[in-house]
Amino acid sequence: MFVAQNLKSLPADKDYQLWVLDNSTTLVDAGVFQVDENGSVRVNFKTRRPIKIAGRFAVTEETRGGAASPTLKNLVLASN
To answer: Are 60 and 20 in contact (CB under 8 A)?
Structure first.
């Protein structure tokens, strides 16, 4: 379960994308999402490939549908 608050609404051509940092070296895609009118989201996620240890999480702004690798210049959130 991923929960976030106070994120800005994005234009129609953008999505937020969740990433899981596996073994402190590789960011693994965990899907795209939009926030509600209050900037909140609560969503079940599943990584696109198996991971050993979910050490950290990151959220980036990506083009609609997501990206194969994160656009780190658009990093919005990083957390343990």
So the answer is: no
Calculate ∠ Cα 76-79-80, nearest 5°: 165
The DSSP letter of residue 28 is E
Q: Is the dihedral of CA 45, 50, 56, 57 positive or negative?
A: negative
Predicted TM-score (pTM) of this structure: 0.89
30-46 pLDDT, tens digit each: 999 999 999 999 999 98
Max Cα separation, the chain?
Answer: 35
Structure-model confidence comparison of residues 80 and 27, the more confident one: 27
For residue 4, give the nearest of 70, 46, 60 by alpha carbon.
Answer: 60
